[in-house]
Design goal:
The protein is an alpha+beta fold. It has two domains: 94 residues, 2-Layer Sandwich (Phosphorylase Kinase, domain 1), CATH 3.30.200; 176 residues, Aminoglycoside phosphotransferase (APH), C-terminal lobe (Aminoglycoside 3'-phosphotransferase, Chain: A, domain 2). Helices cover 41% and strands 14% of the residues. Strands 1-2-3-5-4 form a five-stranded antiparallel beta sheet, sandwiched between helices. Strands 6-8-9 form a three-stranded antiparallel beta sheet, covered by helices on one side. It has a two-stranded antiparallel ribbon with strand order 7-10. Helix 4 packs parallel to helix 8. It starts with 6 loop residues before the first helix and ends in a 15-residue tail after the last helix.
Length: 296
């Protein structure tokens, strides 16, 4: 895959790999989205290129990976090179390629989150959780949506942000993964669960990590009622019983809608799903669950 769309990313990749002594000539794109992921097959390495201006977040990912290893939480491991590297303003990090793995089951997610949330707060500047990070930028990029829909989504964003600022008290703040779904909390084919994609690690309410699975059960239908009951039993708490649930669930739903809308602007095959998600939030498609289809 060396078409015009991948050429700028490949140039960044080649320059970054040269800095740390890796050969990127045979690199294979894995995922080219907000973050660009490349695989170096012969070196069993994965290269992650973050958006410009995310150097602090890239450094935090590396610190978090080391902290997780120290606390026996199985997670993706950085390569032993001097990193992160910055090329054209974009931070680049280098990771050991994972062995064969699949999306985690709900019990894997619950097990890893319980282990994570039980840890003492790390001596790392994690920053505080922002459930709405990049949402304004995503809305600006959502050019396939009607202006009336974009106006409504902006208003929904402001409503939820105000509710988040005045949310009910809940469980004590701790280190949270920030994007805890089965694609990021995976299961090794010949091993146990493992945590990856550490970009959104922060200090915040553990309810934010739990809401992802609850939304997959109540909003998208990707998790069955029985699977959700098992998730709550393994973790030891049902976030839907918390009075602030609907605020965080609304924020998670808005993230899922704006993510699809942003990427629909450059890929026509996702436009119907992006519009469907907006229609659901606007009450045009009946009650939850809405059975959203994944993109990317």
């Amino acid at each position: 895959m060396t078409n015009v769309a991948t050429q700028p990313a490949r140039r960044v990749l080649l320059r970054a790999c040269a800095v740390v002594g890796l050969n990127a000539e045979e690199a294979e794109p894995v995922r080219l989205a907000e973050n660009q992921i490349w695989r170096l097959p012969s070196q069993r390495a994965v290269v992650r290129i973050a958006p410009a201006g995310q150097m602090t977040a890239a450094q935090r990912e590396l610190h978090v990976a080391a902290w997780l290893a120290e606390n026996n939480v199985t997670a993706v491991e950085p390569l032993d090179v001097q990193q992160p590297v910055e090329v054209d303003g974009r931070p680049v990090t280098f990771w050991k390629e994972l062995p064969a793995h699949v999306h985690g089951k709900t019990v894997d997610v619950a097990q890893l989150l319980r282990q994570l949330h039980d840890l003492p707060t790390p001596d790392i500047d994690l920053g505080y959780l922002d459930p709405f990070v990049r949402i304004p930028e995503r809305l600006d990029a959502a050019v396939t949506l009607e202006e009336t829909d974009r106006t409504w989504l902006h208003a929904r964003y402001r409503e939820l942000a105000a509710a988040w600022a005045d949310r009910p008290s809940g469980r004590p703040d701790c280190a949270v993964h920030g994007d805890a779904w089965p694609g990021n909390l995976v299961r090794l084919v010949n091993g146990g669960p493992l945590m990856l994609d550490l970009e959104r690690f922060s200090l915040g309410p553990p309810e934010w990590d739990l809401v992802s699975t609850a939304v997959r059960a109540r909003t998208t239908g990707a998790v069955t009622p029985a699977e959700y009951v098992e998730f709550c039993q393994v973790y030891g708490f049902d976030v839907t019983s918390w009075s602030g649930y609907h605020i965080l669930a609304g924020a998670r739903e808005l993230r899922m809608v704006t993510y699809a809308a942003q990427h629909a602007a450059r890929n026509p095959q996702w436009r119907a799903q992006a519009q469907y998600r907006v229609d659901c939030l606007r009450g045009r498609c009946g009650p939850r669950p809405w059975h959203w289809t994944g993109i990317m």
